[in-house]
Amino acid sequence: MCRLKIQFLFLLLVWGLVWPGRAANTTNSLVWNAAADNVSADIHGEPLWPLLEDIAHQTGWHIFVEPTAARNVDVKFTGLSSGEALKKLLGDLNFAYVPQTNQASQLYVFLTSRENATRAVNVEAPKTAKAKQKHIPNELLLKVKPGTDIDALAKAIGAKVIGRDDKLGLYRLQFADADAADAALGQLKANSDVALVDYNYIYDPPVMPQSINGAPVGQVSLALNPPGNSGQVIVGLVDTSIQSLGTDLDKFILKSISIAGSADVGSTDPTHATSMAETILRAMAAQGGNTSAQILPVDIYGNSTTTTSWNLILGLQAAVNGGANVVNLSLGGTTDSPILDDFVNQVLAKGVIIFAATGNSGENFVDTPAANPGVIAVAATQGNQLAPYSNYGTGTAMALPGMSIIYMGNQAYVVQGTSPATAYATGIAAGTKSGTSMTWSQILTAMQQKFPVPAK
Predict the structure, then answer these.
(1) Which pick of 275, 309, 341, 435 has the fewest CB atoms within 10 Å?
(2) Model pTM?
(3) Is the domain 205-450 a CATH 3.40.50.200 member?
(4) Strand (E) or helix (H) holding 418
């Protein structure tokens, strides 16, 4: 329990209102999606060598450099091909990319000639997720181009439309079996009417809180300022079902939305959403004791222990339609989904801020949707170090304490992981926005300075 108290004292020390007027340390970002040949970067003053190490980690390429080659990289771009990205990243330096069939491709970076690129960038092969994310075997998610007759298309490939959003051109298809779905995937990728197609991935159950005795902090004390008619901060909590937080805190919780059916929340133990909601409110309370921000819970699990890409998309849509201008996603999966990425980008384009967890497998790998370049990816700290279970890597924006104390009645519980770290980040951002005139950009910049990602 001594260790728990020390960790929580640190949490209390790092809490507090972020303030305007402080210069932020620049956080460089490089996201290299080799499979999609899509690269985005926001880099300021980074030397050549660490940049090449990052590229090697993300691509698996063997990179060789002329020893005298040097450059400080200062670029910003989104969605370029590998070739165009290398031109911008390497500037006046020459390079030669040599693809290989049965081994790692090679990249040579040089000033004079390729033969002089003799210094190897010796890094480990890029770490990948322990296992490919599971999906519903006989389902696909599909986005079609405007004017497409989805019902005729589904009939032609032997599918049934079991979920649809005609406005977005987004559909959930069901097939007779996994083989039929796999065969249709190839056909749909080649169909000119199809914009995007992918599996309907399954997201594992979130980490549940554990009861403890002798908690180092008491219950949350927070007062609600009357929310204004405009400019109100609403946090979309896309998660499991939520329970009552008690008379004093329920006023901060808006009417819950469920897109996965009704759920039995009669358990005396707190659900994951209940834990995240109280964590968000605790973060707000640490900034002054009152707020006008409120939480909109969106249940994407129902009575199931897992959820899917389709439910996550519907949950995000429900949160945004319900007025959320900041979203908390204390969940993630190991496989990137172009369908989900596309929808997340649409949400981001509306000015909505999304915080998401990097994952809990302790790898140099960021779970999706946190891996989306526009999402604020949050890692977890333990003391002043990166928590051993916390995922990290390129794109991680900030790291906050990975432990939260919450209450169900008079019983205290502890929840640990990148989930509560994300909820703390969401609560600090939402509380700051509701109590100051700072813009979201100013808030995020200040938070990145205050909660940097420790070196692994």
Answers:
(1) 435
(2) 0.73
(3) yes
(4) helix 418-435
